[in-house]
Amino acid sequence: MSKPMTAPKLSRRAESLGTENAFVVLAEVNALVRQGSDIVSFCIGQPDFPTPKNVQAAAIGAIRGGKHGYTPSAGIDELRAAAAKDMGARRGLDIRPDDVVVGAGAKPFIAYAIASVTDYGAGDEVIYPVPGFPIYESQINANGAVPVPIFLRESRDFAFDPAEFEAKITAQTKLVILNTPHNPTGGMLQAADLDAVADILSRHPHVWVFADEIYSRLAYAGAFESLAARPGMQDRTIICDGASKTWAMTGWRIGFAANRILAPVFTRWITNTDSCASQISQWAALEAVTGPQNGADAMRASFLERRDLIVGLLNTVPGVTCKTPGGAFYAWPNVTEACRITGCTDSEALRKRLLTEAGVAVLADIHFGRRVPGDGQHIRFSYAASPKAIRSGIDRLEAFVRRHM
Ligand code: PMP
Known about the structure:
This protein is of the alpha/beta class. It folds into 2 domains: 12-50 and 295-402, Aspartate Aminotransferase, domain 1 (Alpha-Beta Complex), CATH 3.90.1150; 69-290, Type I PLP-dependent aspartate aminotransferase-like (Major domain) (Aspartate Aminotransferase, domain 2, 3-Layer(aba) Sandwich). It contains 14 helices and 12 strands. Residues 45, 105-107, 133, 179, 183, 212, 214, 242, 244, 250, 255 line the site of 4'-deoxy-4'-aminopyridoxal-5'-phosphate.
């Protein structure tokens, strides 16, 4: 008989590491598809378009031109300068090339920011949105800081209540994470919200801000605005943006962070981890930022059409109500009544039955942190899917609900 395997213990840090359930559900969906199931998937948050041709050509040119070695950890000068100009212009800010660091996606900057302003086990607090991108809470925990959720309320179009926000700030608060346009609700912080947040933070000068603005180009409800452009906010705000969502480059792994004080710190993190982002992807991203924007503009226009399509259709399904999201490519319908009709105890039970009984793959609110008390049950649709898939997926959802009426 072989002995049970014993291995040395893992760290508390390793054990506290969370995950992004989109990837877990995606693996489930792929397994079902391999077994021959017909699934319409709304799980994964990435554009369903190819990377624009001019960007592809720039990458091929980089490979052929021998641009394959390491780059400085902060990125190639050309891309830092282009990203600084572009990020600054779209926010009405003066951002210097030296303030910008290029990373292997926007995601690593979440960890770098938390690790750079909090100390392990010191009781340092980080305020972050719930529902929200699951990596925030995972990295707060893995870095030994204290997660302090701020709830986004359906009644406020998925923004938080500024008074509730101020009540969460303590002497131990080191960082506030904001995300606009927002994953998973598609909500946007409006000018009045940003004014209120800036006003509150002016009374708490010890707090950093991580402004996750990866969806900044996918804002439909009015112009995109950044907290960093409010008086006194630029130096204490880490602006995070990237190539993934705007130019359909999720797998190329290029993100940007801009902050004068933290840029050298982030650079050192990258020297300690990735060394640099892929040089080939950096030249491609330079073309994405500085070249013709018709590809990005066409994708944005298409997402807007699909938003209107999916929100319209969702609101015809019994037991489902869906607010019109202001940005990104996510719809976040309230399915409390649909759960009741179909006998599902909660959104996660509904999600599982939609997958196995209706052939529709979505994510549930619990994949984005805990549920907001009093706000009921929600599921997330990424509508970066073809209009045909959207029609067929919502038809299946509707038929599933009606089978139980
Ligand atoms: N922030 C948010 C809110 C996101 O939704 C995502 C991607 N799903 C990221 C950051 C990470 O983007 P990237 O591909 O640039 O790492």
